[in-house]
């Protein structure tokens, strides 16, 4: 279920559906990382980066390329069709071929001897990974055929098979708790890939191994590496290099321009609120906020969902700043009470500096709820307001902890931190924006989505607390799981504490995989995939380098918006 109608390839560039409006030949944007606010958005009236306005767009050519790929998907045999599916996903153009891809994977799953026809590690690993990504229940026991019963390894030949090692490592990222064989192949393939890397005299092979170890496909944003994959693509057994590269580059330009238009809409909305001018300590980062939904909802048709979700995410950051760097405990208590009441008149009980923020939140969330009602016939505003109340309640609890100087136990901190992460709030809005949970029959979706959100929130909270820098060098108290954990350890070191947190994140990914399989079973695929993308975005958002910069995030945004 979607909020925008499906557009043909020729329509993508002739019109962009943004918040219900059609914008033709819109303006592009430029980002200045050197400005005082590197997350600011500037509109470029000269349309310097607009592919459509500069060079035009050959919709006929685009349609023919799509047709050629669809024909290949229907006619390729053996493992070529699986390699083609993987290629389309890595290029970020799979949304044009969902019907064909589902048909291929369903046939693979239905074959009683699905894995018997594949005799090498790479092909079995690829089939396993593609099926699990789509929620098919495939047993990890398929890998036991390669295990050496004498010493428990996977055979001497594999140590010289780079493609097989990469395939096993990628497949192992989709394991769930209790799958011992998956843990074994993860350790085995990881160790041998590192050995390969140490002894490799090929720059190309070294690059591929480093990328695999640092950014395994399942735990990374496909869109983050799509352009590099497109540029380095060499074809599939002699086929597809020019066809797929040309199609992917055309689609990349289309998507880039759509994102530019959306970001302009978000930036104008944010400026219209006037909060950044009124409250100087608030983070003024519409570009950063928009990058979350840009990563989560990759289908170009979902413009309205991305824009509405960016508004929701903006307020998670804004309210976090109110609690972290502005309010006293007494003032924050009043703000929390007002959000729980959800009445416009409640703003009169607030300090002057809080009133505009409260009114902007009240108006924005009510508007989002009404827009969902206009499309789907059900208004979720009551549930939306409840999740904002829960968020503020969690923020207030943290504020009281840090004001008192008494840190809670690590478990208590984390339980509250899952709510204060904002993940439950964001994913509930996304659930409704995608059209789920709005009928009596779909009410079960609310509980299932909350379970998914808990795993994503755990990953986000722990990654955030692993970070070596405060966001934008803000001064404030927002706590740390590691700090609470260290308090409960008598002789623990910070290094051991960080290793423990990394292990928690790895374990939570196994839980997340299991929940993903369950949601795919319940026709919640688009929600589950977007939730996974949120988890994949987390390292980009919280992995600061030595210069206190989010270099990888900046590269990703430049690539998605400017093809830099």
TrEMBL record:
Keywords recorded for this protein, A-Z: Lyase, Magnesium, Metal-binding
Domain Terpene synthase metal-binding: 272-511
One Pfam family linked to the record: Terpene_synth_C
Gene Ontology molecular-function annotations: magnesium ion binding; terpene synthase activity
Keyword Kinase: no
Pathway per the UniProt entry: Secondary metabolite biosynthesis; terpenoid biosynthesis
Family matches, as InterPro entries: Isoprenoid_synthase_dom_sf (IPR008949), Terpene_cyclase-like_1_C (IPR034741), Terpene_cyclase_plant_C1 (IPR044814), Terpene_synth_N (IPR001906), Terpene_synth_N_sf (IPR036965), Terpene_synthase-like (IPR050148), Terpene_synthase_metal-bd (IPR005630), Terpenoid_cyclase/PrenylTrfase (IPR008930)
GO BP, sorted A to Z: diterpenoid biosynthetic process
Domain Terpene synthase N-terminal: 68-204
Cofactor: Mg(2+)
PANTHER family named among the record's database cross-references: OS04G0344100 PROTEIN-RELATED, S-(+)-LINALOOL SYNTHASE, CHLOROPLASTIC
Name this polypeptide is given: Linalool synthase
Organism: Solanum pinnatisectum
């Amino acid at each position: 279920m979607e909020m925008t109608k499906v557009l043909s390839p020729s329509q993508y560039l002739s019109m962009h559906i943004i918040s219900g409006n059609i914008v033709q030949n819109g303006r592009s944007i430029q980002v200045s990382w050197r400005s005082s606010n590197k997350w600011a958005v500037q509109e470029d009236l000269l349309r310097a980066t607009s592919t459509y306005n500069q060079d035009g767009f050959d919709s006929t050519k685009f349609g023919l390329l799509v047709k050629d790929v669809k024909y290949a998907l229907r006619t390729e045999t053996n493992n070529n069709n699986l390699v083609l599916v993987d290629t389309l996903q890595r290029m970020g153009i799979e949304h044009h071929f969902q019907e064909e891809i589902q048909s291929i994977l369903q046939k693979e799953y239905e074959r009683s001897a699905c894995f018997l026809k594949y005799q090498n590690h790479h092909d079995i690993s690829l089939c396993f990974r593609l099926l699990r990504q789509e929620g098919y229940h495939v047993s990890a026991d398929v890998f036991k055929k390669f295990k050496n019963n004498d010493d428990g390894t996977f055979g001497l030949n594999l140590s010289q098979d780079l493609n097989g090692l990469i395939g096993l490592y990628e497949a192992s990222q989709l394991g769930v708790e209790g799958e011992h064989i998956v843990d074994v192949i993860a350790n085995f393939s990881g160790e041998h890939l590192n050995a390969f890397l140490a002894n490799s005299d090929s720059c190309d092979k070294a690059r591929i191994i480093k990328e695999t170890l640092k950014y395994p496909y399942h735990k990374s944003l496909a869109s983050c590496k799509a352009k590099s994959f497109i540029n380095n693509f060499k074809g599939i057994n002699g086929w597809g290099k020019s066809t797929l590269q040309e199609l992917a580059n055309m689609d990349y330009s289309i998507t880039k321009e759509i994102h530019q238009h959306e970001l302009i809409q978000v930036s104008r909305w944010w400026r219209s609120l006037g909060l950044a001018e009124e409250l100087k300590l608030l983070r003024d980062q519409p570009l950063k906020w928009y990058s979350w939904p840009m990563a989560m909802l990759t289908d170009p048709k979902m413009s309205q969902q991305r824009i509405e979700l960016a508004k929701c995410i903006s307020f998670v950051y804004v309210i976090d700043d109110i609690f972290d760097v502005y309010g006293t405990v007494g003032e924050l208590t009043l703000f929390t009470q007002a959000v729980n009441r959800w009445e416009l008149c409640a703003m009169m009980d607030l300090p002057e500096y809080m009133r505009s923020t409260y009114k902007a939140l009240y108006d924005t969330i009510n508007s989002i709820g009404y827009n969902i009602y206009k499309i789907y016939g059900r208004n979720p505003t009551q549930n939306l307001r409840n999740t904002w109340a829960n968020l503020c309640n969690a923020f207030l609890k943290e504020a009281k902890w840090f004001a008192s100087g008494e840190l809670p136990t690590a478990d208590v901190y984390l339980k509250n931190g899952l709510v204060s992460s904002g993940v439950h709030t964001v994913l509930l809005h996304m659930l409704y924006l995608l059209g789920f949970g709005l009928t009596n029959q779909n009410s079960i979706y609310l509980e299932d989505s909350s379970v998914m959100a808990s795993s994503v929130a755990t990953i986000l909270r722990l990654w955030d607390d692993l970070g070596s820098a405060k966001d934008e060098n803000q001064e404030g108290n927002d706590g740390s799981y590691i700090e609470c954990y260290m308090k409960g350890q008598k002789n623990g070191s910070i290094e051991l504490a960080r290793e423990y947190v990394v292990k928690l994140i790895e374990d939570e990914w196994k839980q997340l995989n299991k929940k993903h399989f369950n949601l795919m079973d319940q026709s919640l695929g688009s929600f589950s995939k977007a939730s996974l993308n949120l988890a994949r975005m987390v390292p980009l958002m919280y992995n600061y380098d030595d210069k206190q910069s989010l270099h990888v995030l900046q590269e990703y945004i430049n690539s998605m918006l400017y093809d830099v």
